[in-house]
Amino acid sequence: MSFDRALGGRPGQRLYARARARLAERLTRLGVTDPRVLQALSDVPRHQLIPEALRDRAYADTPLPIGDGQTISAPSVVALMTQALELRGGESVLEVGTGSGYQAAVLSRLAERVVSVERIPRLASAARRRLDELRVANALVYLGDGTEGRPADGPFDAIVVTAGGPEVPPPLLEQLAPGGRLVGPFGQRGTQQLLRVRRGADGVLSREVIGQCSFVDLIGTHGWAA
Ligand code: SAM
Prior knowledge:
Elements: H1 3-6, H2 11-29, H3 35-43, E1 64-67, E2 70-72, H4 75-84, E3 92-96, H5 102-108, E4 113-118, H6 121-133, E5 139-143, E6 156-161, H7 170-174, E7 176-188, E8 191-199, E9 205-213
Helix pairs in contact: 2-3
S-adenosylmethionine binds near residues 71, 96, 97, 119 and 162.
């Protein structure tokens, strides 16, 4: 079932659907070439995952505040990070930093299973409720320190970290399956390099810088101090 039908197919939803189609055109110009990723961004109703007062800006390519000093990332950042995960459909994915639940909803369209961890209770429960409203059945949200990963649910074929940390948390590397990809922002507070780490079939790790970015802090045992 499409998200719009899950929402009752209301006429206003069609306006949002058109705004998403325009967003997809913009993402293409910005280098998002994976048709599955473009389709997922065209399908997920970002306006349903942000505070109601901000809905008229839902499809602008910009981060927006979601409370507790946190943000929903810009759609282009979500799209480029998702594309870098190279998902084909059968993967088990870990997301660190659920925030609004938007990235989790996008991933749910592209992988078999999404496990998402958020450290702020209010955000975790709001994301859980919104994903339920959107009838996303294959994404589970857990409250906790995502820098520890979710060893009970791993290993993961793909891991996305959506908050900026000083270094790649070692537990996440341990939970990355052979052939897996980890994408996330690492470096200084306020400015980071977007890294992709691959674990080869032989288990060897390699890393590449795929961009520059600025994310809110990754806070936890293997992140920054609160
Ligand atoms: N992916 C989110 C979305 O689609 O809305 C945006 C994430 S927001 C930029 C970063 C999130 O990471 C915040 O909600 C923050 O509370 C969370 N976070 C920071 N450190 C964390 C940690 N150690 N474990 C889990 N979540 C963490």
